Amino acid sequence: MLMAKKKSNQPKSIKNRRASYDYALGDSVVVGMELKGGEVKALRMGHGQLRGAYVTIKGGELFLINATISGTKGIIISESDQTRPRKLLAKKREIDNLMAVKQEGKTIVPLEIMTRGRFIKLRIALGKGKKRYDKREAIKKRESDRRIQYIEKRS
């Protein structure tokens, strides 16, 4: 007798919602993450945050800095390990391209942690920081789009 797969109510990904507000984003790349066992389980349960996180290059390798992975009752992650630097796994050619663009003054921004498949992946993108007036323009555009949608819906 075959049993149906149990649907999980785990989030499919953990997103950095602030990234598109603070940065003008470009191309994105999906890279792997080097994690410990408890961190994997915590991320699959949705206990991670990308707020304030960024990616840096040290010695020809990518590192995710300041991302928080917190434990729960059964998963114990110490305070120092919650925000430890985590190595990102990417091809040498991708790292070289990112290094070249970073030299131009752009930032490597983590967008989302994808926990859907067998492996946990991180989507990163190149971004240029927005100025305050750019952010105001984005808010005005978003609100005008909402008004248009509302008017179209009513008519």
Keywords:
155 residues, alpha+beta, Small Protein B, Chain: A, seven-stranded antiparallel sheet, two-stranded antiparallel ribbon, 5 helices, 9 strands, globular
Structure description:
This protein is an alpha+beta fold and 155 residues long. It has a single domain, classed as Beta Barrel (Small Protein B, Chain: A), CATH 2.40.280.10. The protein has five helices and nine strands, in the order E-H-E-H-E-E-E-E-H-E-H-E-E-H. The protein has helices at residues 19-22, 37-44, 79-82, 92-103, 132-154; strands at 13-15, 23-33, 48-49, 54-58, 61-65, 68-69, 86-89, 107-114, 121-129. The strands form two sheets. Strands 1-8-9-2-7-5-4 form a seven-stranded antiparallel sheet. It has a two-stranded antiparallel ribbon with strand order 3-6. The N and C termini lie far apart (53 Å). The relative contact order is 0.23.
